[in-house]
Specification:
- The structure is a single chain.
- The protein is of the alpha/beta class and 326 residues long.
- The protein has two domains: 152 residues, Alpha-Beta Complex (Quinone Oxidoreductase, Chain A, domain 1), CATH 3.90.180.10; 145 residues, Rossmann fold, CATH 3.40.50.720.
- The protein has ten helices and 15 strands.
- It is globular, with a radius of gyration of 20 Å.
- The N and C termini lie close together (10 Å).
- It binds NADP nicotinamide-adenine-dinucleotide phosphate.
- NADP nicotinamide-adenine-dinucleotide phosphate (NAP) binds next to α1, α3 and α4.
- NADP nicotinamide-adenine-dinucleotide phosphate binds next to α1, α3 and α4.
């Protein structure tokens, strides 16, 4: 089969397309013919070596969607031809930038009829992270006022839709070119993240509640190094902030009295710690089938274009997801 691999860590030029043997699933694994595999910032961290994959050479890509080709002896829930999607490979297993991928059965779920396999290929990291942050860590409730920084990104656009589906008031930030699409996906307010009065604009966009003070109840922050103090400033009492960003935040909040005075909770998370991936994956599959979660595919790439895809995911402004289509 054809597969993108990196044989050593480095820039995008270490990515090559190799002809290698098709892998055999063993134990509790499923062999999937890949139709779509999301391109995520984390793919670049594994490639350049700040995150460590279990082996070299290594096929990048955490996400996968496609059709089951073969199952190993202990697998019971999947059969040849099933449409499936999953995530969390590309670290302790080879990843999804290949014609075929071996996926542990507990990181894979069925896709209902009608869900597009390329879009589902882009769902894994982005939507599971949004689910874990908002549902599991923040305990998002109907009527919560929810701030999502960077709503046009992979995680952001999934989070906007999840929060809207959960009945929250959704306030998001993005470049103005993306505001109309974010409102179409369920955002109540879209604000330019570059405005000088961003904190004031967020608080005035948040609805007043008779029983709560002004501000937001939940924040999803992918740039803690930039926004922790803003998060504290716009928080209502009891606000839950979930941090997912890569860059090191300043140590805590620089004005910790503001955070303390609001009983603010900060959780930092990694999607890889998800206890059972099937839980968010199946919930998200239902939302995709119902049309409540539409993964927006900004661009697709063939295997020979992997380097360009990994450059673009870090450098370009796009709406939604970049997806490999092997
Ligand atoms: N902890 C975890 O488990 C976890 C999981 C997934 C992702 N992450 C991390 O979360 C981050 C986002 O991931 P992603 O896949 O959503 O990336 P992405 O698709 O590249 O999205 C990033 C978004 O941030 C926006 N942005 C850029 N500058 C901004 C600013 N100053 N304020 C607000 N938004 C800004 C970008 O918009 P423009 O391009 O239009 O400027 C883009 O829409 C990455 O650092 C990733 O590594 C962590």
């Amino acid at each position: 089969m054809r597969a993108v691999r990196y044989h050593s860590h480095g820039g995008t030029d270490v990515l090559t397309v190799d002809d290698i043997d098709r892998p055999d699933p063993t134990g509790h694994e499923v062999l999937v013919e890949v139709v779509g595999a999301g391109v995520n910032p984390v793919d670049t961290y594994f490639r350049e070596g700040s995150y460590k994959p279990y082996q070299l050479p290594m096929i990048p890509g955490i996400d996968v969607a496609g059709r089951v080709v073969e199952t190993s002896e202990f697998v019971e829930g999947f059969s040849e031809g099933d449409a499936v999607y999953g995530t969390a490979i590309g670290k302790d297993h080879d990843g999804g930038y290949a014609e075929y991928a071996v996926v542990p059965e507990d990181r894979l779920v069925h896709l209902p009829d009608g869900v597009d396999l390329v879009a589902a290929g882009g769902a894994g990291v982005a939507a599971v992270t949004a689910w874990r942050a908002l549902v599991d860590h923040a305990g998002l409730q109907v009527g919560d006022r929810c701030l999502i920084h960077g709503g046009s990104g992979g995680v952001g656009h999934a989070a906007v839709q999840l929060a809207a589906a959960a009945g929250a008031q959704v306030i998001t930030t993005a470049k103005p070119t993306h505001h109309d699409r974010l409102r179409d996906l369920g955002a109540d307010a879209a604000l330019d993240y570059r405005r000088d009065d961003l904190a004031e604009a967020i608080v005035s966009a948040a609805e007043s509640r008779a029983t709560r003070d002004d501000g937001v109840d939940v924040v999803l922050d992918h740039r803690m190094h930039e926004y922790l103090d803003l998060d504290a400033a716009v928080a209502a009492t009891g606000c839950r902030v979930v941090g997912i960003g890569e860059k090191e935040p300043a140590v805590g909040f620089s004005q910790s009295s503001a955070a303390r005075g609001k009983d603010l909770q900060l959780t930092m998370m990694s999607m890889f710690n998800t206890p059972d991936f099937r839980e968010p994956l199946s919930g998200l599959a239902s939302l995709m089938a119902a049309g409540d979660l539409e993964i927006q595919v900004a661009e697709t790439y063939g295997l020979a274009e992997a380097a360009e895809a990994q450059r673009a995911v870090l450098e370009d402004s796009f709406f939604g997801k970049l997806v490999m289509t092997p």
